[in-house]
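thought: fold this chain, then report.
action: predict
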Amino acid sequence: MSRPFRPALLVTAVLALLGFGITPSNAATTITVATAIGRQDNSTASVTGYVVGQPTATSTVVRSNFPNDYALALADSATQTSTSSMLYVQIPSAFRASYGLQSNPGLLGKQITVTGTLAAYFSHPGLKNATAFTGGGGSSDPGDPGDYYAGAEGKTGAALKAALHTIISNQTKLTYDQVWDALEVTDQDPNNSSNVIEIYSGRSIAKSSEGGGVDDWNREHVWAKSHGDFGTATGPGTDVHHLRPEDVSVNSARGNLDFDNGGTAVAQCSGCTADSDSFAPRQAARGDVARMIFYMAVRYEGDDGFPNLEVNNSVGNGTAPYIGKLSVLKAWAAADPPDAFEKNRNEVIYTQFQHNRNPFIDHPEWISSIWPN
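observation:
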């Protein structure tokens, strides 16, 4: 399967074709942050460290409310708080969309490698004129990585759905136990690397609180597993594109309800409503929910031993392999487009876990092509 385009690889290939050999003696050495801080000599190096915030002044690094995408701070520990142990990295414009913290707050706590010049930045030990960033899974808009969607090019309607099904069915499958570990990475709180964000409530909760207790979080199947009776079997039952952390009691309140507007407030889930046949999450999660549902309806077409999952315009679907309400889900997707957290999650699933993507995060316009009415 293709991987995201890497400019550094293209440069290397061009130099090789022109007869300029890249030898180990010419290549940048990989060093720690501590070594980089002590070697501010304008030499070139690749530095590996954890993203710990954004420098805004010589002795100030912020971990939330990032003002822009122009800089980040690296440390040898993801929990480092002393600025004297941090390297300030200038982010050139070509890399800001993928590694700037305002667009990619989910990078906080992630390990990355940056190649550039060891020189002061913000009058502090730094790295400038970077030529390569790798790792972390960060991206404000991964879009179409390489030729991943080449097989869907120019298609619409049923033909587009069939092409996307073929593309995204090529995936690494997780066990239900592995889902716990995956969710701790895919849904990590951008402002607290020890926590995850619950999908419906939006609450930040300690990763260590996973379990079955009243105030624990567990693995919520956004496409309710009884809608197709797939349980927790490896396949739809373990597909992290629709499995999300959620409070145990909120998960229970949602149950296997379809999605629709209306209803009364749900306890411990600010902004959520439910009635006898439907559930609605908080406003900021409604588009996310819709795109997960559309992913499942394309990924599982009944050709791999599991039911053919489909979206319909009904509620109260019960145990049928259908979920609704289509018109509402389309409206939710349009009103709540993909944000940086959702895009980063898609990228992390692609690069680190299942190696497939949710096409409706990359291309929201495909929703109306496949489901025009």
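thought: worth noting. The CA atoms of residues 303 and 366 lie 22 Å apart.
final: tokens above.
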